[in-house]
Design goal:
Length: about 220
Amino acid sequence: MASKTVKQMKSRWQFAAGVTLATVLCVVSAWVVLKRFTVTVIVPSTLDPLPAPISEATKATGGQPTSTPNSATAPAATPTQQAELPLAKPVGALATRQGVFRIGNPTSYPVRVALLSRKASANAALSEGSAASSAKSVAQPSYEVPAHWDFAPEEGGAKGLLVSLPDRTLKLKKGDVLVAFAQDGSGRYWGPYVVDETAVPTWDAKAVEWQLILQP
């Protein structure tokens, strides 16, 4: 009798355990299904707002697609076009810068002023920029025979004296070279200067002359 009661209780316990296990499995299955359903519903809702910034950016640009500027196809403006303008003086202007020569020695030194006058053919080759004329001028002497003038201390003063040459007409022009040096052994010198290229000598357009006034 007692063993029969134990068997009945054991079978009831097994039945209750089976029901409990089945219930747990059902709950777990329902939770898994519910989770999958929730993920399926939530994922689209989180992804939908993403295109909004793109549409707003398109709306801000008036519905036209924007493009980034390409540095290779959009060259920047440079000042090289202005640099291409001719800077050389006209040939006529060079002719007006030829004139007589005035020298002044307001210093306390006895000085000698030497001149290397450029030949007219070489000067024309420089102004015209012709390769053939330049080659021809290289074969010939570039300068005339040197000339010089001696000045005593303070001779000519700050105003200067007009000088000339005994064998040819003196017209100082662009490219002529001038140098002055003391003759008392002090080693003092001035120059060399290049006419119409250095600040000295100076051009007096009113008197049509070049002026070399030595500085003490």
